[in-house]
Structures are given as structure tokens and as C-alpha cells.
Amino acid sequence: MARAGQADGAEPEPYDAGPFVPAGGDLRALREAAAGCRGCPLHRAAGQTVFGSGDASARVVLLGEQPGDQEDRQGRPFVGPAGGVLMRAVDEAGIDPALTYVTNAVKHFKFEPSPRGKRRIHKAPNLREISACKPWLAAELRLVGPEVVVTLGATAGKALFGSSFRVAEKRGAALPMPPVDGQESPGTALVATIHPSAVLRADDAGRAAAYAGLVSDLKVAARLLT
């Protein structure tokens, strides 16, 4: 029986963005190529590819999960409420936002429609989708060559460490950067923390503590900058 969106007798859609990643291209070339990525089925429902944003000389890569509704509409990462929380926390931690490159582990918005109305409800990407998109992340990290990578939330951590990653076990410490698609990143450290959307989801009593924890973890990243 064919899966939804797959015609009878058709080949299953691949889960590998690798063939779409141009060899030797700069960030602009990657961004242009990513607009046509068909490396997993998520491209079918999403409005557009949301590639990373920032300069190739950035010292810090901020790695989130996937674009949200606003990011999908505008084509840029972290432009919604969570992005506002993140940039405020980055600045408060002592990291110049201009020295950051912001991207996501998955470049297309995964969602399910609301039972009522036109609202699109965020749905976390699965490990197969995360793995399919990893060639884009590996190419970004190769070109930027950051001193520090900050993973924001569980999906970002799993993209680098695998399915066993748990934010609570790893957050707030300087960790060695694992290979990405077999690519080593000597000289790059990693700091794990919560996704800024967790601050927004916290109740009134816990929101201040969640935000303070995010800032505290980002201060660890700030101290690693030489």
C-alpha cells in the first residue's frame, strides 16, 4: 500500500539531502541550493526551505530544531517569539549577536493542521528527518568553522549526539564537538541548553528560572570564546 503522497508503484522518497548539497560552495551557494532541496518529504507541505542566517566568520553557531510558523513564512530562522527570547539571552550572556550564525537541524517546517482554523501546529521532526538534513548542517559548520556550537533543545542535541541525547544530562558544560557526517571539527567546543521556546512554554512561576538557566548556559559559551 502506498504511503500518503506516494503514487502506487512509485519509488519511496529518499531521506538524504546529500545529493542536493553543492561541493565547494560558499554559504550563498548553499542557501540557493537548499531552496530546491527534496531530501525528505517535509518539503512537500512546508512553504519554503529556511536556511541558516549569519556571516561565515561567525564565532558561535546557535543550532535550533526546525523553523516554526513565522520562520516558514518569512524564510529566516528564529524570527518568531522564540527568536526574540534567544537574542535577548545571547546579548545578556555577553555574546555579540552579530558574531552568531543561527540555523536549525532541520530546514523545513514540520507541522500538523489545527482541527479548527488555519493554525499550523508544530510537530517535532523524527530521527530519520534529522539525519536526512544533516549534510546541510555539516556543510554550514565546515564553512563557518565556529569556536563554539550551542545546541538549543533536544532535537539539536540529537542531530549531533544521536538519539540518546538528553538536554538535562548535558546542559551548561563545555563538551567536545562530535563529528558531523564523519567531519571532525577540531578547535570547536559545544554547549547544550534548552530551546528558547521552553521559556515561552513555562508557566508564570517557572518562566524567570527557565530564562535565567538559558542565560547561564550561554555564559558558558561566552567564556569559551578566545
TrEMBL record:
UniProt keyword annotations, A-Z: 4Fe-4S, DNA damage, DNA repair, Hydrolase, Iron, Iron-sulfur, Metal-binding
Gene3D superfamilies hit by this protein: Uracil-DNA glycosylase-like domain (3.40.470.10)
CDD domains per UniProt: UDG-F4_TTUDGA_SPO1dp_like
InterPro entries: UDG_Type-4/5 (IPR051536), Ura-DNA_glyco_family4 (IPR005273), Uracil-DNA_glycosylase-like (IPR005122), Uracil-DNA_glycosylase-like_sf (IPR036895)
Annotated SUPFAM superfamilies: Uracil-DNA glycosylase-like (SSF52141)
Stretch list, region Disordered: 1-21
GO molecular function, one term: metal ion binding
A Pfam entry, by short name: UDG
Residue stretches making up the Uracil-DNA glycosylase-like domain: 51-219
Protein name per the record: Type-4 uracil-DNA glycosylase
UniProt family annotation: Belongs to the uracil-DNA glycosylase (UDG) superfamily. Type 4 (UDGa) family.
Organism the protein comes from: Streptomyces cinnamoneus (Streptoverticillium cinnamoneum)
SMART domains associated with the record: UDG (SM00986), UreE_C (SM00987)
Listed GO biological process terms: DNA repair
